[in-house]
């Protein structure tokens, strides 16, 4: 029996009439009759006794009903699942991000995404980039955000926003005219907040300083960019950070200047190369990219 045969057969078994089955299935009575006749023709036997407009199942029909009941339930479950997926009701999007991006970019992006995906479940976690690669490869996350391209053969890195390395300092550190000019290693004065030795941006800053014969002294060293930003906001010193962290700093507490020479910093969307994104996940990635670009524009204003 075909799936359509089973569906009609079960409807008739439940309600006992052609007209009732037609109402249950939302199809015409002639359509129900035609499907039933085709099913009986294929089986080579009648399944029902016709008496005064009602259908009484034969013993063979009862046996067939018992065997096909689970299949019919599975069919209904598949249809409910398809309807739910279409309505985005059961989709789960699993996103992992480096801590800086989770705090600086994600909140506004999630707010915008939720307008169209109010019912979609979203699981958020913060990892470092090495942990992100493992999560994607093991199927524990659908998409990820990082300021680094891990250059891993199993990972696709898609740039979705780009800015430049930025120096942030407590308000009042520079004049208005100085804020319009880039600043290089020689301009780093006063209390400096450094990044951990294995941090990519920290390595870039130290290498640039050494290339110009500058030996910066970092008496405060932090593990994350958002801690550096918080210290600068509190007046504890100057730091060189990514543009997204700089743009998300509290207005009125922090001044910003581009690093010289300009050093591009990209925001990457990371996915496993064997796992295409769902509709909801791709929409979230688009919202994140748009939010990140808008954040950079506002920070430059």
List the helices and strands and how they pair.
Elements: H1 3-15, H2 18-25, H3 29-43, E1 48-51, E2 54-57, H4 59-86, E3 92-97, H5 99-104, H6 106-114, E4 121-126, H7 129-137, E5 143-146, E6 155-164, E7 166-170, H8 176-179, E8 192-195, H9 200-211, E9 218-222, H10 225-233, E10 238-241, H11 243-247, E11 254-258, E12 264-272, H12 279-300
Parallel strand pairs: 3-4, 3-5, 8-9, 8-10
Antiparallel strand pairs: 1-2, 5-12, 6-12, 7-10, 7-11
Domain HTH lysR-type: 1-58
Protein name: LysR family transcriptional regulator
Family: Belongs to the LysR transcriptional regulatory family.
What can you tell me about this protein's structure?
The chain has helices spanning 3-15, 18-25, 29-43, 59-86, 99-104, 106-114, 129-137, 176-179, 200-211, 225-233, 243-247, 279-300; strands at residues 48-51, 54-57, 92-97, 121-126, 143-146, 155-164, 166-170, 192-195, 218-222, 238-241, 254-258, 264-272. The protein is an alpha/beta fold. The strands form 3 sheets. It has a 5-stranded mixed β-sheet with strand order 4-3-5-12-6, sandwiched between helices. Strands 9-8-10-7-11 form a 5-stranded mixed β-sheet, with helices on both faces. Helix 1 (3-15) crosses helix 2, helix 2 (18-25) crosses helix 3 (29-43) and helix 6 packs across helix 12. The termini are far apart. InterPro entries: LysR_HTH_N (IPR000847), LysR_subst-bd (IPR005119), WH-like_DNA-bd_sf (IPR036388), WH_DNA-bd_sf (IPR036390).
């Amino acid at each position: 029996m075909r799936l359509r045969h089973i569906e009609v057969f079960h409807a008739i078994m439940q309600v006992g009439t052609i007209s009732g089955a037609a109402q249950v299935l939302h199809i015409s009575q002639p359509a129900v009759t035609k499907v039933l006749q085709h099913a009986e023709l294929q089986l080579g036997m009648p399944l029902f006794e016709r008496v005064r407009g009602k259908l009484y199942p034969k013993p063979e029909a009862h046996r067939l009903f018992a065997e096909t009941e689970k299949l019919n339930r599975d069919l209904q479950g598949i249809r409910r699942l398809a309807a739910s997926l279409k309505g985005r009701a059961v989709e789960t999007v699993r996103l992992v991000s480096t801590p800086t991006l989770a705090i600086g970019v994600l909140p506004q992006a999630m707010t915008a995404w939720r307008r169209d995906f109010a019912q979609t479940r979203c699981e958020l976690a913060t990892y470092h980039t090495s942990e992100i690669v493992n999560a994607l490869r093991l199927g524990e996350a659908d998409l990820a955000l990082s300021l680094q391209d891990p250059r891993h053969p199993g990972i696709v890195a898609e740039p979705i926003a780009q800015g430049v390395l930025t120096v942030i300092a407590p308000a009042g550190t520079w004049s208005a005219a100085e804020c319009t000019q880039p600043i290089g290693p020689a301009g780093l004065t006063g209390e400096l907040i450094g990044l951990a030795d294995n941090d990519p941006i920290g390595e870039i800053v130290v290498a640039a300083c050494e290339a110009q014969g500058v030996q910066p002294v970092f008496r405060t060293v932090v593990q994350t960019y958002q801690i550096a930003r918080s210290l600068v906001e509190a007046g504890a010193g100057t730091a060189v950070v990514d543009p997204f962290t700089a743009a998300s700093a509290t207005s009125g507490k922090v001044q910003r200047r581009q690093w010289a020479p300009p050093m591009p910093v990209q925001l990457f969307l990371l996915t496993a190369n064997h796992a295409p994104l769902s509709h909801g996940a791709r929409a979230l990635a688009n919202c994140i990219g748009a939010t990140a670009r808008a954040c950079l524009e506002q920070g430059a204003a």
